[in-house]
Amino acid sequence: MAVEAPDPKTFGSWEDAFQYPITTVRSMERQLRNDIDSKREKLRSLVGASYRGLLGTAESIVEMDGQMQQVEGYLADMGVKCNSRLLEKKVANFSAWDDGIRANDRERYTFASQMAVLRSCPEVISRLLKKGGSVLLASKVLVISRLLHKKLSQRKNPAPYLEVLRNRLASLRWKLLAKTDRRLQNVESSTVTLAEAMCAFSLATSSSSTDVLRHFLHVRQSAVSELGQRSDDEGIFNSLKLIVQTLQDCQQIFPVQLARSLEDLKATPLLQSTGLQALQKLSLDVHQRWLAEDINSFIPYVRHDDLQKSDAARLLKQWAKQAFSSFLKHLGTKLD
Q1: At a CB cut-off of 8 Å and minimum separation 6, what does 110 contact?
Q2: Dihedral angle sign, alpha carbons of residues 7, 13, 16, 22
Q3: Cβ atoms within 10 A of the Cβ of 2, count?
Q4: How does pLDDT run across 161-217, given as a tens digit for each residue?
Q5: Contact 126/279 with Cβ under 8 angstroms?
Q6: Which DSSP symbol is given to 3?
Q7: Are 197 and 183 in contact (CB under 8 A)?
Q8: By CB atoms within 10 Å of each CB, which of 150, 247, 304, 330 scores lowest?
Q9: Cis omega (within 30 of 0) on the bond before 269?
Q10: Sign of the dihedral through C-alpha 174, 176, 179, 181
């Protein structure tokens, strides 16, 4: 029975091989030679494959070097053609051109928006006066229209239509003041209604608190005289009633309530007031951004603190004396 040859790779030294018979030793020799040949072939295959990969890598490096040289050439050419001063000059010229275009557009839009709002103002004022709307709101629209008319009239070649608008606004101002006076004359008007009418008069005429009081007393005096001149007895009675009501109204409104109302007008820019923003005919949601800054930020200047309580009492006392004198005169005429 043949003895199986041991594995020579498990020997600790070459001397261990000669512990076996010669045939076994030769068998181990052949086994070792076969293993050497097999590993030599594997090594040759591995080296060959690595060499081919190395050649491919070298070709890639050469190709990358060529591409890098091409990119460097492009960059060098761009550096020669790109003059920083020339580019800065081009950018500056483009910015100036763009600003000029924008300025022209802004000027056109500003003119168009200001003209559109101004053309709408007379219609808005007329509608407010006809439908019994707020005289204070109508007065605010009138002030805005005057600002717009002044701004447009200052242009190099003002539109001829501005003169038509000016005349129409002047007529509406007279109607507004007339309607305000009627509310001030009305004995049934509440203190809130009277204060609103007084603020409207102050805005439309740039009057102070003292001026407003004088105007109110003048209007009431005229109403007292008109009532006293009526042929019926009711006129005399209403004349006395108006005198008494005027004394009560003045004590309630002047100077504190009116001063607060006038001060509220200066709390925010006029165009930001809720009433004006709600007027759809003016289309402020579209045009306001193009209106001049001084119009957008305009706050009416009205003196609200010039009237002292003592001054109001003095003026009222003088008026009462004159009103009662007029009343007694007309009463005497009736009795005669």
Answers
A1: 290, 291, 292
A2: positive
A3: 7
A4: 899 999 999 999 999 999 999 999 999 999 999 999 999 999 999 999 999 999 999
A5: no
A6: P
A7: yes
A8: 150
A9: no
A10: negative
